[in-house]
């Protein structure tokens, strides 16, 4: 295919994409509503609780006070060389075997911090520290 034909094909493809987008925007709302997707002002939350790994530790804390939590030196009988934070609230971290969190501007509630336990002779493992923050 020569250069002119290739550029013409690209132009027709771009025109087709624009026409398709315009047609999608012009669909009636009733057709979109029947697809099961509908706008809502309130967020929807799953009715069933999320299952936590068997290695879930729980502790209580108060708002405004720093949280310092000692992490176990071993999981399932295997020593842990270090921990890293996979997911957690702002201002949380791990130093050695201590989990720290400064719940600055945090509302009371339950917060989950997911950690990865690195073990020298085994695959990494997940540890969840669940913190119930009260006022």
Throw out a few tags for this protein.
single chain; 135 residues; alpha+beta; Immunoglobulin-like; four-stranded mixed β-sheet; three-stranded antiparallel β-sheet; 2 helices
Give the structure's gist in a few sentences.
The chain contains two helices and nine strands, in the order ααβββββββββ. It is an alpha+beta fold and about 140 residues long.
Radius of gyration: 26 Å
What is the architecture of the domain at 56-134 at the second tier of CATH? Answer: Sandwich
What name goes with the CATH superfamily of the domain at 56-134?
A: Immunoglobulins
Give the total of beta strands. Answer: 9
Secondary-structure element pattern, one letter each: HHEEEEEEEEE
Amount of helix: 10-25%
The residue-averaged pLDDT reads: 78
* Sequence of strands across the biggest β-sheet: 1-9-8-5
Relative strand content? 35-45%
Unreliable runs: none
Distance between the termini: 72 Å
Q: Name the shape in a single word.
A: elongated
What structural class should be given to the helix and strand makeup? alpha+beta
What name is given to the CATH topology of the domain at 56-134? Immunoglobulin-like
Largest sheet descriptor: 4 strands, mixed
Q: Which class of the domain at 56-134 in CATH terms?
A: Mainly Beta
What's the total helix number? 2
Task: Provide a descriptive summary of the structure in words.
By secondary structure, the chain is an alpha+beta fold. It is 21% helix and 36% strand. It has 2 helices and 9 strands. The strands form 3 sheets. The protein has a 4-stranded mixed β-sheet with strand order 1-9-8-5, with no helix packed on it. The protein has a 3-stranded antiparallel β-sheet with strand order 2-7-6, with no helix packed on it. The model has no long low-confidence stretch (mean pLDDT 78).
């Amino acid at each position: 295919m020569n250069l002119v034909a290739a550029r013409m094909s690209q132009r027709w493809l771009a025109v087709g994409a624009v026409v398709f987008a315009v047609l999608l925007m012009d669909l009636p709302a009733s057709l979109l509503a029947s697809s099961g997707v509908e706008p809502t002002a309130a967020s929807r939350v799953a009715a069933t609780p999320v299952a936590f790994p068997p290695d879930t530790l729980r502790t209580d804390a108060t708002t405004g006070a720093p949280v310092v939590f000692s992490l176990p030196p071993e999981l399932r009988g295997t020593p842990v060389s270090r921990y890293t934070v996979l997911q957690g609230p702002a201002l949380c971290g791990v130093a050695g075997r201590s989990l720290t969190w400064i719940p600055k501007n945090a509302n009371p509630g339950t917060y989950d911090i997911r950690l990865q336990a690195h073990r020298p002779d085994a695959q990494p493992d997940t540890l969840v520290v669940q913190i119930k923050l009260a006022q």
